[in-house]
Each structure stands twice: as C-alpha cells, then as structure tokens.
Design goal:
Blueprint (H helix, E strand, L loop, with lengths): L6 H54 L6 H9 L5 E6 L5 E4 L18 E7 L2 E14 L2 E12 H37 L1 H11 L18 H47 L4 H32 L8 E4 H10 L10 E5 L6 E4 L1 H18 L6 E7 L4 E8 L9 H4 L15 H11 L3 E7 L2 E9 L3
Parallel strand pairs: 7-9
Antiparallel strand pairs: 1-2, 1-5, 3-4, 4-5, 6-8, 9-10, 10-12, 11-12
Subcellular location: Membrane
Main location: membrane
InterPro entries: 2CSK_N, HAMP_dom, HATPase_C_sf, HATPase_dom, His_kinase_dom, HisK_dim/P_dom, HisK_dim/P_sf, Sig_transdc_His_kin-like_C
C-alpha cells in the first residue's frame, strides 16, 4: 500500500529544502566573508604593531619598546604578537632571535608591507614584513621589521564570527519552519471547509457548492459543481426513463397476460391457434419495445470517455446498407452517394450502425404507401462529416419535427414505440454530433453531423 503524505507535509518539504539550500549557500558566503574580515582586521593590527615597533626601535636604538607598543604586542586581536628587527647587514637589532620559516623574500626595497603565512616553532603563524629606511646609532640603511602571530588566534576569531552567524541563521530557519508548518495549516483551512461542504452532499442533495474558496481551488469547485450537475441530470433522466418505461410496458404486458389467459380459456383448437398468433404478435411487440428501451439507455450512456475507434464512413455505410434485404428491385429503391473524399470519424461502430438502421426503419415504417425511394449520402468536410438520409414519403410537419425526436412521442402511428428518432438523437449526441430534420419536397430529410477524426 502506498503511504499517503499529508498536503501540509508535502508543502513543507517543497518549501524548506530550497530554503535550506539558500541557507547553505549563504553560510558558505558568510564563511568566506568571515575569513576576509578576519584577514582585514588582523592584517591592520599586524601592520599597526609593525609600524609601532619600527618607530620605537628607531627612537631607542633598539634598546627598548615603549609601554604602549608592548601593550599592542601583548594583546593585539586577542593574542600575543612576536617581532624582530634586522639591520641591513642581517644582524638582529631587537626582538626574538628565531624568525618564522617560509617568509617570502622581496629582494628589493619595497615601500609596501608584505603579509605572509609561515611556520614558527612548528606552529602556523600569520604576519607582516615592513621595510623602512632608518638611522640607528649613526648607521643608516634598510631595516626590516617582522611581526607575526599564531594563526590559531585568527581562526578562533573566524569561528566566533561563524558561530554567531550560525546561531542567527538556525534561529531564522527554525522560526521559518514553524511559520511554514503552522502557516500551511492555517492556509489549508479553506480546503477543510470545502471537505465539509462536499461531505454534506448526498444522493438527495447534489446542489452546487456556492461558498467562497481560494482562487487555487476555484477550478476544483467548478469541476465538482459540473459533476454534481451531470449526476443530477443523469439521475433525473434515469428516474424519468424508468417511469416512462414502466408506463410504456404496462399496457403491452397487460395485453400479453390477457391474451395468454384467452388462450387458456379457448374452447376450440381454432380459437387456440388464432389467440396464440395474437399472443405471439403482442409478445414480439413487447420484446421489440424492451429492446429499444435498452438501446435508448445504452445510447444515453455514450460519452467522449467511451473507447471509440476510427471508422471510415464510406466503407462502413456501404457494408451496412448492402446487407439490408429490405431494399431491392421489387421494393423500395435505395440510392447511395458516399462521395469520393475520405470521411473518417471516431465512433462506436455498433451504435452508429444502430442509428443508421433506425433512420431506415423510421423511413420504411412511417413513409406511408407512397414511399418509393431512400437516398443516403455522405459529404466530407475538414472538421466534420455529414450523413443525410432522405425519403420521398409523407414526411413530418415542420411544426412537429422537434417533437418527433422526443422519446415515446407518436405523431401519426399509434402502433409505433416512439423511440426510433430519440435513439438516433442520443447516439449522435453521444458522439458529440448533432441531428436535424428538414422537409424533402414532402418527404423527410434527416441530417447527421459528426466531428471528423483527427
């Protein structure tokens, strides 16, 4: 079973990792900044100490440093500072005898101080070398003053800066995590309200949700309301269908029962045979009505979600109509005009064939005694194709054409089921098409328009 993750946890996981990534980048940037800051602070301290030592050595001839300079050397940036001063001939004038190892050499007189990292008695040190032209005890030349300090002091300063930055950053991240966690919880309250609104709906109450919702959920609410509307209309249609079916089947079934009783009560073989034929005819009509009712229900269940297949109208219509034995030299003439351009549609072949057969049945059953021909044609288009079925029968009055497609409506034949055109209409609309009726010089022309296949 797939473990479900709450929306709040998802949003927290989506928000916090990028923030942590930014915090990591900011931390690295702060580390680099802390090192640059430490280098700047300590280099200035070293340079100040070197200048102070050089001045005191020049004044005292290397014998003593002033108290102020000693204070600088003992507490500069929180750690002791070492120094020595060399004369031009390499003789030490003042300070510690052992210099750091690895100090870069300039080779020439340089007015700019040289900052370095070296080793002193096995420890890493950082310092500055300063060359000044000075006169000490009558000797004039280029004196070199070197000042250095244990690098651990500098690293401790960097760590202190980083710890302060880390504490501030972690505090901000913790606060942000709490804000995100509880903020998302507060932000999701409209969804919880929406859940309650949906939970209140039932099969007896599918009214649309009208409460205010966040803009991000307006699409969900609109889809739900559309679904509620579709389900409501579907339930209403099914209820109406069941009521109409029960009403339409009541009389035929009652007739079948009455005829069955008359067969049982018949006194002669002739009466039995006659009443049996009537019973068989009534049963066939009842079965036909039931079959058409089921076909209507199936047609109304068609939708774009149905797995349609690509269908060639020309070849399919040709095969369907040529197999119909009702049309021939001695009966009604059937004329086919299937066109030359391809006409492909996405359709359910069984249901589309049922629609065409129902149109032919309708023409043959209600065309009247003057019906002599039926024409079936196909017109191809870029976005839609048209199937036309026209006859020269008695037709339907223009004012009754819309009513003719309503189920159970019988215009001029009380013996019909009144379902033929309504089944065709349901099938066509289930294919996202449309149907229209028109006068055909006294006869009836039915036009079915279907979307062209991509």
């Amino acid at each position: 079973m797939t473990r479900r993750v709450s929306l709040r946890a998802r949003l927290t996981l989506v928000i916090l990792p990028p923030v942590l990534g930014v915090a990591l980048i900011a931390g690295l940037w702060q580390l680099n900044g802390a090192r640059e800051t430490a280098d700047g602070v300590f280099n200035k301290s070293m340079l100040s100490a070197a200048v102070a030592v050089a001045n005191d050595v020049a004044i005292s001839g290397g014998d003593a440093l002033s108290p102020r300079t000693r204070d600088i050397l003992s507490s500069t940036s929180g750690g002791q500072v070492f120094y020595h001063v060399f004369a031009p001939d390499g003789v030490i004038v003042a300070g510690y005898a052992t210099p750091p190892v690895g100090i870069p050499r300039t080779g020439e007189e340089s007015a700019e101080p040289t900052f370095f990292r070296a080793a002193y008695l096995g420890r890493d040190v950082s310092g500055v070398r300063l060359q000044t032209r000075t006169q000490i005890e009558g000797f004039t030349g280029l004196f070199t003053t070197t000042v250095w300090q244990d690098s651990a002091v500098r690293e401790a300063f960097v760590r202190d800066l980083m710890m302060r930055s880390l504490v501030v950053s972690m505090s901000i991240l913790v606060a942000l995590a709490l804000i995100v966690w509880f903020g998302v919880r507060i932000g999701l309250r409209p969804l919880l309200d929406l859940e309650q609104a949906i939970a209140q709906r039932s099969s007896g109450d599918l009214s649309p949700i009208k409460r205010a919702v966040p803009a991000e959920t307006e699409g969900i609410v609109a889809t739900l309301n559309s679904l509620f509307d579709q389900v409501s209309r579907s339930m209403a249609a099914q209820s109406e269908f069941i009521a109409n079916a029960a009403h339409q089947l009541r009389n035929p079934i009652a007739g079948v029962l009455a005829l069955a009783e008359s067969v049982v009560s018949a006194r002669t073989d002739e009466q039995v045979r006659e009443r049996s034929r009537d019973l068989l005819d009534a049963a066939q009509k009842t079965a036909d009505l039931s079959s058409r009712l089921l076909m209507l229900e199936r047609a109304q269940s068609l939708s774009q979600a149905t797995a349609f297949t690509k269908l060639d109208l020309q070849s399919s219509l040709g095969n369907w109509l040529e197999a119909d034995k009702r049309f021939g030299p001695d009966g009604i003439a059937l004329h086919l005009d299937l066109g030359e351009q391809p006409a492909n549609v996405m359709a359910d072949p069984v249901m589309l064939r049922e629609a065409i057969v129902n149109l032919l049945d309708n023409a043959c059953s209600h065309g009247g005694p003057d019906l002599s021909e039926i024409r079936v044609s196909v017109r191809s288009g870029k976005t839609e194709h048209v199937i036309a079925v026209a006859d020269n029968g008695r037709g339907i009055p223009v004012q009754d054409m819309e009513r003719a497609m309503i189920r159970f409506v019988q215009l001029n034949d009380a013996g019909s089921t009144g379902l033929g055109l309504s089944i065709v209409r349901a099938i066509v609309e289930g294919h996202n098409g449309r149907i229209s009726l028109a006068d055909n010089d006294g006869g009836l022309a039915v036009q079915v328009t279907l979307p062209a296949a991509a």
